[in-house]
C-alpha cells in the first residue's frame, strides 16, 4: 500500500515541535523517542507499519485543542487514534506525523437515565460504556467484535456497527452529540441531549469521517433499556441459496430479529475443529436471535422455525436455556480465531443487497479456486454485511499481494451487485485506492470539498479514504502553503 | 421548471442564471427565493426488494405511491413522516424527496430513528449542475463520507435530490395505546421517561395537557402487545386513577392526529416545534407562554401554538436543542428566522459547506442561513 513521501521539512523541525508540545502537555504525554514511538507504528491492519514522528496522549479537550493548534501552526499532519483496533489502517501513521491518542480521556462525564443518554470522553472503550450503565438495566447498542478494546472515538470515526445493528442501528444512529476540536484548535459543539439537528446535520457528516474533519473528544450517546431476554435458534442448510432465501423470508414475514448471522462450510469446519460448538456439518448455517419476554421469544422463534422448516433444514436447534444459547453463539464468536488457527487471514467487509447473497457466495467460491486461496464466509446476513476471510501465508513471498488482489476482486463484485466496499470497518488505507470502483471523480470531489471546509490545510489523517491520485493536488497545496 | 429526468435537472441547474426555489410537492411551507424548480416530474419506484427491506425511488415520487407499494408487502416507512397540508393549508402532494429534504419524522422517531436514519443513498445535482451520488442501497455502508446524512434535512440548500434509496420495515401485526389521565406536564414526562426506560418497546410517547392524556403506544404481534400494555400499566399506574387502552384503529387515529398536529388545525396563531432534552420539556413549555402546547417524543418534542409574531426563542433563552417556525406569516419568518441560529463555529462550517456545494448561491436563498 503506497503512502505519500514524508515531508522532510516537517521531520527537520521535530525538535521544535516536540518542545512546543512539551510546553502544553505533561512530560509523559509526549512520546518522541524512536524506541517508544514504535508502539504506535500500526493498528490492527498489521501488514503496514510506520512509526510516527511523535505521539501525544492529551487528557482533556483543552489539551487536544492546544496540540492541534501547535500542529496547525507548524504544518504537521495529525493522525488521530482511538485504541488502534482499525482493520482498515485508519490509524496508520506517517513518518512526519503526530499521533494523537485519546486513550487517557476515558471518563464518564454524565449519566442521565431520565433522558436515556450518557456523555463520555471518547477514549472510553465501547464495552465500558455499557459497563457504566448496565447495573441500571441499560446498554449501549453498537457492538463491534472488538468492543472490549475499541474506543468510542474510533467507533465514531468509522461509524462502527456490530452484530445487532439489524435492530439497533450503527454508531451514527446512536450518536446524539459531540465535542470536536478542529485542526486550528477551535472547539465546536454539535448536537447534544436533544434529537436531530436544527440546521445541517453536521453530526451525521462527522460520524464516519475517519478522523479527517476534527478530533472528537467527548460524545453524547443514546443508551437503551436492556431487553427482558434474548434467545437464538440455529439452523443448517445444505445449500447457500436456500439459506439466503430463508433469511429473506424471515425478514418479509415481519419478524425483526436482532441478529441473523451466517456461516458457510469452510467456516463451519474451521470453527468446529477449534471450538467444538457442536455445529452440524452443512453448507450454510444461520443463527437467528430474537428478544423480548419469554412468551414473546417463544412466539417469534416458532414463526421463524415455521419459515425455516419450509426450506428443509438439515438441522433446527432452538435454544431453551442460557447454556444452550451460549453454545450456539460459541462457534460464531470464535470463528475469526478459528480461521486464524489455520493461517493468516484478511477480513473483508463489503456489503451486498441480501438478495444477491447466493450469487456472490458462488462467485467468491469460483474466485477462491482461481486464486488458489481459501475463503471462509461469516457475516451479518440480515443487513448483507459480508465478512469473507481470505486465508494466506504471510511468510510466503507474494501471498499477501495475491490475497489483496483477491480481496479487491471480491469488493469490486460487492459494488457490481449494488453494494459497497465497506459496511463497518471503514476505508482507511486498505480500501482507499478502490474508491474509484464505487465512486466517480465528481462523487469523490463532493466528499473532498467537505474536508476543505473542515480542514483546509489537509493536515488531519490526510492520506486516508481518498485515492492518493484524487487527493494529491490538495495535499501538495497544503505542503506548499507552509 | 419541472425537469422530467435527472439529466434535464442537471442541465437546468447548470444553465440557470438566477436563484432557484427548490421544491417537491410544495406542501411543507418551505419557500426559498427565486424561480420554482420542482422535482415532481422525477417520479417512480425504480427498485423494491421487500426481503432486503430496501427501496429506490426518484425524488418526486409521491409518498402515497410509496406507501401503497409498501402496504402490499406489509411494510411501511417506519419513521412516520408528517403530512403538513392541513396544518399549513397547503395544496399539492408530498413527495419522498421532500420528506428527506426536511428530515420529517413523526412520533415513532424516538423508537426507530429519524428520516435521516432510513435514508441509505442519494443522487443529487449540486449548484454547478454536477450529478453526485453518495451512499447506496445497502443498510450498512461506511464507504467515504456520509453525504446522505448531510443531504437529509438540508432543505434543498446544498443540492437538488433526484433519487433516494431508503430502508423500510415490516408493519407490525397490531398496535395499542395505553392512556394515562390527569398527569401534570412534569409527572407525564416522568411517566414517559419511565416507559421509555423499560424493556417494553414503546414506539410513541406523547402528552396533551389540554385533555390531560399521556399516551404510550406499543406495536407488534397481538399477544406481545397485550403483554406489554399490561406490563406498562403495572409499571406506571400505581398513582394513576384512570387508565384506558385504545385498540388498533383508535390507536392509529390518535397517533396520526399527533403526527399531523391536528389539534392546531384551524386555530389561529403561529406554530413552532422545539426539540429538547425530554426532562427539560415542561420547563421550556412554561417559559414559552404559548396559547397551547403538547409533547411528543417522550417530552423531547414540543409543539406550540403562539400568539402571532411572538419571539419564542428569546423567551426560551439558551437551551440544549432548537426551535423552528412551522407556521407563521412571511414577515414573522423573515423577522425571526425559520431555523434556530447556530453557534459561531457551527455557522462557519454550514456557510463553508453551502459555498462549496452551491458556489453561485442558487438554491433556496434565505433558508437556513441565519447566524447568531
What does it look like?
The complex is a heterodimer of chains A (482) and B (372). With 482 residues, chain A is of the alpha+beta class. Among the domains of chain A are: 108-225, Uridine Diphospho-n-acetylenolpyruvylglucosamine Reductase, domain 3; 230-336, 2-Layer Sandwich (Alpha-Beta Plaits); 343-432, Alpha-Beta Plaits (2-Layer Sandwich). Chain A has 18 helices and 18 strands. Chain A has helices spanning 8-12, 14-24, 34-37, 61-74, 126-133, 152-158, 165-168, 202-206, 240-252, 265-275, 294-309, 322-333, 335-342, 357-371, 399-416, 435-438, 441-454, 468-480, and strands at residues 30-31, 54-56, 78-81, 98-101, 108-112, 117-121, 138-139, 175-181, 187-191, 215-222, 224-225, 230-237, 259-264, 284-291, 315-318, 344-347, 375-380, 388-392. Chain A starts with 7 loop residues before the first helix and ends with a helix. Chain B is α+β, with helices and mostly antiparallel strands and 372 residues long. Chain B has 3 domains: 6-170, Uridine Diphospho-n-acetylenolpyruvylglucosamine Reductase, domain 3 (2-Layer Sandwich); 174-259, Alpha-Beta Plaits (2-Layer Sandwich), CATH 3.30.70; 262-336. Chain B is 31% helix and 26% strand. Chain B has helices at residues 6-15, 63-72, 85-88, 96-101, 109-112, 115-118, 147-151, 185-196, 222-236, 248-259, 281-288, 312-316, 330-336, 344-357; strands at residues 20-23, 35-38, 45-49, 54-58, 75-76, 119-125, 131-135, 160-167, 169-170, 174-181, 202-208, 213-220, 243-247, 270-276, 292-296, 301-306, 321-327. Chain B has a 5-stranded antiparallel beta sheet with strand order 3-4-8-6-7. A 4-stranded antiparallel beta sheet of chain B has the order 11-12-10-13. In chain B, a hairpin with a 5-residue loop joins strand 6 (119-125) and strand 7 (131-135). The longest helix of chain B has 15 residues, at 222-236. The two termini of chain B are 34 Å apart. The model of chain B has no long low-confidence stretch (mean pLDDT 95). The interface between A and B is large, with 96 and 87 residues.
Amino acid at each position: 500500500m503506497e503512502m505519500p513521501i514524508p515531508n522532510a521539512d516537517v521531520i527537520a523541525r521535530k525538535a521544535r515541535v516536540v518542545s512546543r508540545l512539551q510546553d502544553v502537555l505533561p512530560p509523559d504525554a509526549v512520546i518522541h523517542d524512536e524506541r517508544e514511538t514504535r508502539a504506535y507504528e500500526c493498528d490492527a491492519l498489521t501488514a503496514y507499519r510506520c512509526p510516527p514522528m511523535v505521539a501525544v496522549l492529551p487528557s482533556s479537550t483543552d489539551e487536544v485543542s492546544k496540540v492541534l493548534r501547535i500542529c496547525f501552526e507548524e504544518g504537521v499532519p495529525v493522525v488521530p487514534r482511538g485504541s488502534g483496533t482499525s482493520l482498515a489502517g485508519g490509524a496508520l501513521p506517517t513518518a512526519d506525523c503526530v499521533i494523537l491518542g485519546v486513550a487517557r480521556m476515558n471518563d464518564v462525564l454524565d449519566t442521565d437515565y431520565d433522558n436515556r443518554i450518557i456523555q463520555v470522553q471518547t477514549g472510553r472503550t465501547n464495552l465500558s460504556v455499557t459497563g457504566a450503565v448496565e447495573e441500571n438495566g441499560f446498554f449501549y447498542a453498537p457492538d463491534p467484535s472488538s468492543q472490549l478494546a475499541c474506543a468510542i472515538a474510533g467507533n465514531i470515526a468509522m461509524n462502527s456497527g456490530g452484530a445487532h445493528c439489524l435492530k439497533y442501528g450503527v454508531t451514527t444512529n446512536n450518536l446524539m452529540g459531540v465535542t470536536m476540536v478542529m485542526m486550528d484548535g477551535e472547539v465546536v459543539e454539535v448536537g447534544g441531549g436533544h434529537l436531530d439537528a436544527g440546521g445541517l446535520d453536521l453530526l451525521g457528516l462527522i460520524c464516519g469521517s475517519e478522523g479527517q474533519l476534527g478530533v472528537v473528544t467527548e460524545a453524547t450517546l443514546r443508551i437503551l433499556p436492556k431487553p427482558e431476554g434474548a434467545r437464538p435458534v440455529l439452523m443448517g442448510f445444505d445449500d447457500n441459496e436456500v439459506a439466503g432465501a430463508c433469511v429473506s423470508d424471515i425478514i418479509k414475514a415481519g419478524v425483526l430479529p436482532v441478529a441473523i448471522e451466517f456461516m458457510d462450510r469452510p467456516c463451519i469446519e474451521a470453527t468446529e475443529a477449534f471450538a467444538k460448538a457442536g455445529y452440524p456439518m452443512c453448507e450454510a448455517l444461520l443463527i437467528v436471535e430474537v428478544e423480548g419476554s419469554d412468551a414473546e421469544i417463544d412466539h417469534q422463534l416458532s414463526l421463524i422455525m415455521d419459515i425455516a422448516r419450509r426450506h428443509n433444514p438439515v438441522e433446527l436447534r432452538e435454544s431453551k436455556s442460557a447454556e444452550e444459547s451460549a453454545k450456539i453463539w460459541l462457534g460464531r464468536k470464535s470463528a475469526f480465531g478459528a480461521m486464524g488457527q489455520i493461517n493468516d487471514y484478511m477480513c473483508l467487509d463489503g456489503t451486498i443487497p441480501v438478495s444477491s447473497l447466493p450469487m456472490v457466495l458462488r462467485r467468491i467460491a469460483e474466485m477462491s479456486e482461481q486464486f488458489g486461496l481459501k475463503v471462509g464466509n461469516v457475516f451479518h446476513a440480515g443487513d448483507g454485511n459480508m465478512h469473507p476471510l481470505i486465508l494466506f501465508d504471510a511468510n510466503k513471498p507474494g501471498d499477501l499481494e495475491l490475497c489483496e488482489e483477491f480481496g479487491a476482486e471480491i469488493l469490486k463484485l460487492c459494488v457490481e451487485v449494488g453494494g459497497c466496499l465497506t459496511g463497518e470497518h471503514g476505508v482507511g488505507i486498505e480500501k482507499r485506492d478502490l474508491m474509484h470502483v464505487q465512486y466517480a471523480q465528481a462523487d469523490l470531489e463532493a466528499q473532498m470539498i467537505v474536508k476543505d471546509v473542515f480542514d483546509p490545510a489537509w493536515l488531519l489523517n490526510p492520506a486516508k479514504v481518498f485515492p492518493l491520485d484524487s487527493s494529491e493536488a490538495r495535499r501538495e497545496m497544503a505542503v506548499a502553503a507552509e | 421548471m419541472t425537469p422530467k429526468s435527472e439529466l434535464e435537472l442537471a442541465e437546468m441547474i447548470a444553465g440557470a442564471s438566477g436563484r432557484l426555489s427548490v421544491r417537491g410537492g410544495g406542501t411543507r411551507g418551505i419557500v426559498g427565493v427565486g424561480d420554482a424548480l420542482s422535482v415532481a416530474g422525477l417520479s417512480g419506484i425504480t427498485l423494491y426488494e421487500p426481503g432486503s427491506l430496501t427501496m429506490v425511488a426518484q425524488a418526486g415520487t409521491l409518498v402515497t405511491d410509496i406507501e401503497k407499494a409498501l402496504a402490499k408487502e406489509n411494510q411501511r416507512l417506519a419513521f412516520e413522516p408528517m403530512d403538513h397540508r392541513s396544518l399549513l393549508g397547503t395544496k399539492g402532494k408530498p413527495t419522498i424527496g421532500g420528506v428527506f429534504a426536511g428530515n420529517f419524522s413523526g412520533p415513532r422517531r424516538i423508537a426507530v430513528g429519524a428520516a435521516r436514519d432510513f435514508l441509505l443513498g442519494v443522487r443529487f445535482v449540486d449548484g454547478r449542475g454536477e450529478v453526485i451520488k453518495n451512499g447506496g442501497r445497502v443498510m450498512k455502508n461506511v464507504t467515504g463520507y456520509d453525504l446522505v446524512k448531510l443531504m437529509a434535512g438540508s432543505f434543498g440548500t446544498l443540492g437538488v435530490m433526484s433519487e433516494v434509496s431508503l430502508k423500510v420495515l415490516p408493519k407490525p401485526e397490531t398496535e395499542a395505546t395505553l392512556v394515562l389521565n390527569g398527569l401534570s406536564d412534569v409527572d407525564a414526562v416522568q411517566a414517559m421517561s419511565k416507559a421509555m426506560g423499560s424493556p417494553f418497546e414503546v414506539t410513541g410517547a406523547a402528552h396533551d395537557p389540554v385533555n390531560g392524556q399521556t399516551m404510550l403506544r406499543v406495536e407488534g404481534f397481538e399477544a406481545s402487545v397485550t403483554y406489554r400494555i399490561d406490563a406498562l400499566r403495572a409499571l406506571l399506574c400505581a398513582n394513576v386513577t384512570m387508565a384506558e387502552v385504545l385498540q388498533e384503529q383508535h390507536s392509529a387515529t390518535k397517533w396520526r392526529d399527533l403526527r399531523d398536529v391536528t389539534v392546531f388545525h384551524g386555530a389561529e396563531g403561529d406554530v413552532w416545534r422545539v426539540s429538547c432534552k425530554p426532562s427539560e420539556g415542561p420547563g421550556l413549555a412554561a417559559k414559552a407562554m404559548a396559547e397551547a402546547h403538547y409533547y411528543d417524543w417522550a417530552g423531547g418534542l414540543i409543539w406550540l401554538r403562539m400568539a402571532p409574531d411572538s419571539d419564542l426563542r428569546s423567551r426560551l433563552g439558551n437551551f440544549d436543542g432548537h426551535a423552528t417556525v412551522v407556521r407563521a406569516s412571511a414577515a414573522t419568518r423573515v423577522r425571526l428566522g425559520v431555523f434556530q441560529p447556530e453557534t459561531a463555529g457551527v455557522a462557519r462550517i454550514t456557510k463553508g459547506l453551502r459555498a462549496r456545494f452551491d458556489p453561485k448561491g442558487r438554491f433556496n436563498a434565505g433558508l437556513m442561513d441565519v447566524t447568531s
